[in-house]
Structure formats: C-alpha cells, structure tokens
Design brief:
Elements (H helix, E strand, L loop, with lengths): L6 H15 L8 E6 L8 E5 L3 E8 H8 L7 E3 L3 H4 L1 E7 L17 H22 L3 E16 L7 E2 L8 E5 L2 E7 L1 H12 L3 E3 L7 E6 L3 E2 L10 E2 L6 H9 L1 E17 L6
Parallel strand pairs: 4-14, 6-10
Antiparallel strand pairs: 1-5, 2-3, 3-5, 6-14, 7-11, 8-9, 9-11, 12-13
C-alpha cells in the first residue's frame, strides 16, 4: 500500500525541480539611475559592451517605448512626471552571462546584435519594474495600420558596399537618411511620422543607402494661420516613398497592441 505520508514530500521535490528548470529573468548586475541635469542635452540610448545600457536625458515614457519596442502613441496613462522629467541610467551587464560576446557593437553580426538587444531590452524592462515600480497593462485595439511593400516597378534602394557594418538612420523634419540601414529600422522611423504601426513586408534583407525627402503635414495649430494639411511645395510621404525608394504604403485594418501605465514611482537614490 502506498504511504500517504510520502506524497507531500514527493510533490515538494517535483515543484522544486520545475522551479529550477525555469530560466532566470534577464537582469543587469547593477544600475545607477539619476535625474538628468537641467542643462544636459537630450537624449540617447546606447548599448554597452557585453549587454549593458547607457541612457542619457530621456523621460520614463521614452525609455518604456524603447524597452518594449512600441511607438509613443501606443503608450497611455501614467503620472505627468513620466513625460516631463528626464533620467540618466548606467547599467552594467553580468559578466558570466555574456562571456565570449564581442566587446564592440559595431563588430557584431546582424543576428548577434539583434539577440543582444533583445536581452538588453528584457533587462531594461526588469530594471523599470524594480526601480520605477512600473506596472503595465496590455490592451489590443482595432485600428488602421500600414504595410511597407515593394512598388509595381521594384525597389530603387542601393545596397551598401559593406554589408557587415551596423547601419544608421538620421532624421529631420521631412527627411530620413540611411547608411547601411535595414528595412525593419526604416519601418520604425516611418511609423513615427505616420502615427500608426508599420509592418515591413518588403522581404528586403540587405543593408541599404538612401535618402527620403518629403513635405511633412503642417501642424494643426500653425503659427502661419494656414489650415492644417500637407504643404504643396513637395511630395507627400506616401508619394516620396514610392518615387524615391520604389516602395509602397498600404493601409489595412489590424489589432494594435497598447500599453497602459498602471503604476510608476520615482526611483530612490
């Protein structure tokens, strides 16, 4: 006959084994978080050797959008200081977890950069939850989204000479310039101007050099007194993407993930 007194001990061993089998949540070894000086130039997010992170003069809302890879319009709620106050963060990665990783971000392959940044973002999410007491709620809302596709006559993008280098994108009002850039990063930049999620469906996987110039919409409250809308001096963003890059923006309906800030507290020094 099976002894009933042995069952609780057996269950305890099983539960302990399951707990040990679960992967540990990625976290920084240590992190310094301080308010940014009033005269500091804003702002920057920089990956550090081995999977650390350096943030200069960014609001909590901006850090959240970077850590969760969302746009500003996908984040709602939270106290006023989460938008108005800026923070400096220096976070160190645990050494053993990243043994053998290249020290220089520029020398990594695309695959390794992506993998490292995924880990850094997870570490940042854990840091925000611990030090800012950040609690988020996820929602899904049906909205208009855009898909970036190839136009009828094919792409007009120039492949970079060195496909191994990490690319860059620079933006200004009505301009995006890329050097060794990839389509997923371009899609993230364009989503800022479209105020809608943008999905890369081009299938283009190389690094490209390009310039995109368009006439941005005038703000709703213009100092000039003109009605809001696109200026007539140049192409709209939709036209410029097709004429200059050989790509298209297609409007679709789809679920948009939203994050709602339920709690956020200023970190203790």
């Amino acid at each position: 006959m099976k002894s009933a007194s042995l069952e609780p001990a057996w269950l305890a061993v099983l539960l302990a084994s399951c707990a040990l089998a679960q992967p540990a949540r990625p976290a920084f070894e240590e992190a310094s978080i301080k308010p940014s000086p009033p005269d500091q130039q804003c702002g920057m997010v920089q990956p550090m050797p081995g999977g650390g992170l350096r943030v200069e003069c960014l609001s909590l809302r901006t850090i959240i959008t970077w850590a969760y890879q969302i746009q500003n319009y996908q984040l709602s709620g939270g106290p006023a200081w989460a938008e108005n106050e800026r923070w400096n963060i220096m976070a160190k990665a645990p050494g053993p977890a990243d043994a053998g990783a290249p020290l220089e971000y520029e020398k990594m392959s695309d695959t390794r950069r992506t993998r490292m940044m995924d880990v850094v973002r997870l570490r940042t999410q854990a840091l925000l939850a611990e030090r800012f007491q950040l609690t988020l709620r996820r929602e899904s809302r049906e909205q208009t989204i855009y898909a970036l596709t190839i136009a009828k006559n094919g792409p007009k993008l120039k492949e970079s000479t060195d496909q191994s280098r990490s690319g860059f994108l620079r933006r200004g009002r009505g301009r995006i310039e890329g050097g060794g850039a990839q389509m997923d990063t371009l899609a993230q930049f364009l989503a800022v101007d479209l105020l809608r999620p943008l999905i890369d469906r081009t299938g283009l996987a190389a690094h490209y050099d390009f310039k995109l110039d368009w006439t941005p919409d005038r703000p709703a409250a213009s100092d000039s007194g003109k009605e809001p809308g696109a200026d007539t001096a140049g192409p709209t963003l939709f036209t410029a993407i097709q004429e200059q890059l050989g790509l298209r923006l297609e409007s679709q309906k789809g679920p948009v993930e939203m994050l709602v800030i339920e709690r956020a507290e200023k970190p203790e020094n």
